[in-house]
Design brief:
Strand content: 15-25%
Number of domains: 1
CATH topology: Spore Coat Polysaccharide Biosynthesis Protein SpsA, Chain A
Structural class: alpha/beta
CATH architecture: Alpha-Beta Complex
């Protein structure tokens, strides 16, 4: 790292999703992000080669802080591209986006920089949502496809107000209780480069199509590192999944079989099986009008959960208790 190095490096992994990736990269660019400039952060785009590759010229035209790499990956997993991205970053902190089809709201970079200024090893999560009126696992039943999605995006004029993505989104199926409850996964997760190194990067064993559950595995690994004392969640920001017919994010006849193979591998790495990261979130950032319905929903779910655990004298955030070895104040 040098004095001129960016403070935060984004790694965006792309495969066969030209339209979606260009939306994602625009949403990350300084054209869309507020209160930051290109010198504050960099975007590393690693694309696994397909028949639908991005135009490097179109990608780099979005900003001088964007670097593009076309990667030849022999398998069907993004793990190799993730670790290649780690080798190219210049920042001391990293935001990993395993799925390049996820657009973000306009203050993700600003709040990420704010969090790492408070604690360079902080874990920062941007909550995930799906575009459309119900989870994309049911896209056939809902008659939802790319054409419908393109119409929704055009109607929001999201390039001028990225928070309008909340208006055409639904809660993520992976985190159905919202951002104030334990999160199972995060597809836009930030922490220090040294913490990503401490977990060994992306485990190369995750070679199932789509990487299996590598993003879930990485998120929980990072959240349980002893140096990860502050866990921030950007309550009023979001990462929005665009439909692209992904291995685990669309309605397929064998979807449950695929997900079961992912769960089996994931559970094998964790004593007492894998579960959500059960740490108390520090809510970070403003909460505008467009996100309010999701915050209300998350608050209602959190109230029920905390009340139930209190009645049974159970700790609501046992991972914090394990990390910090003290009695938590409920």
């Amino acid at each position: 790292m040098t004095a001129n190095s960016p403070r935060l490096s984004f790694i965006v992994v792309v495969y066969n999703m030209q339209r979606q990736a260009m939306n994602t990269l625009y949403s990350l660019s300084a054209h869309h992000q507020r209160n930051v400039n290109e010198q504050d952060y960099e975007i590393i785009v690693v694309e696994n080669r397909s028949a639908n590759n991005l135009s490097e010229a179109a990608v780099t035209a979005l900003g001088s802080n964007i670097r593009y790499f076309l990667h030849d990956e022999p398998g069907q997993s993004p793990v190799g591209a993730i670790n290649f991205g780690f080798s190219k970053v210049q920042g001391s902190n990293i935001c990993l986006m395993v799925d390049g089809a996820r657009m973000v709201t306009p203050r993700v970079v600003e709040y990420g920089l704010m969090a790492i200024a408070a604690d360079k090893d902080a874990l920062v999560a941007v909550p995930g949502y799906s575009l459309g009126w119900q989870d994309q696992h049911h896209h056939l039943d809902a008659a939802y496809d790319e054409t419908v999605e393109m119409g929704l995006l055009a109607a929001t004029n999201w390039q001028h107000n990225g928070y309008r993505l909340f208006d055409i989104a639904t809660i993520s199926g992976a985190n159905p209780n919202g951002c104030m409850n334990p999160l199972m996964e995060c597809n836009c997760v930030m922490t220090s480069a040294r913490h990503f190194a401490a977990i060994g990067g992306a485990n190369p064993d995750f070679q199932l199509p789509g990487g299996g559950s590598i993003n879930l595995h990485i998120f929980r690994q990072l959240g349980l590192l002893p140096g990860s004392r502050h866990y921030f969640v950007m309550a009023g920001e979001g990462s929005f999944h665009q439909f692209h017919g992904g291995i685990t994010t669309a309605q397929w006849n064998d979807l449950e079989e695929v997900l079961e193979s992912h769960r089996k591998q994931l559970h094998s790495y964790w004593n007492n099986k894998f579960h959500s990261l059960r740490r108390e979130p520090i809510l970070l950032g403003a909460a505008g009008s467009h996100s309010q319905r999701f915050l209300k929903f998350a608050s209602q779910k959190a109230k029920k959960r905390l009340g139930r655990l209190e009645r049974h004298s159970q700790q609501p955030w046992p991972d914090d208790q394990h990390l910090f070895q003290h009695k938590l104040d409920d």
